[in-house]
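User: Can you help me understand a structure? I only have the sequence.
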Amino acid sequence: TRAPQSSTITFAEIELPGLLMPESTGSGSNYSGELVVSTSPRCGATEVEARETCGNVCATNDDCVSGKFCYGVATNYCGSIPPRVYSNPIVSFVPRCGTDEISARTFCGEECKFFCSTPGEICHGVLQNYCGSEYTEVS
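Assistant: Let's start by predicting it. Here is the structure, written out as tokens:
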């Protein structure tokens, strides 16, 4: 028997089982704590910048301001969390703890080598990110 399929694809957003879609879409997302995985291409100087700062959604480089390019980005929570402005971002790829790789990377879980101190979390190898860099959230 197969498990019922609980993922729903909507405008390049994937709803995770047990998590809800934001009440609104586009620039008016509600940031209510409901996490939705996004795979929408975004503008940035690099893929990491586009993803970590939740750059503007784009279809081509023409949709981005000068010096920014349209990148297909790794899965992220853009649209579910407020965009971040980093003062002096430093790229990191240190393994981190979390319930999954996206959460470990996005919320900069505890650094780890093998084990995590929080029950239910495991040590994940993560994609490049700005963990350890100072930022402010844009509301």
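Now, to help you interpret it: The helical segments are 47-52, 101-106. Confidence is low (pLDDT under 50) at residues 1-30. Let me know which part you'd like to focus on.
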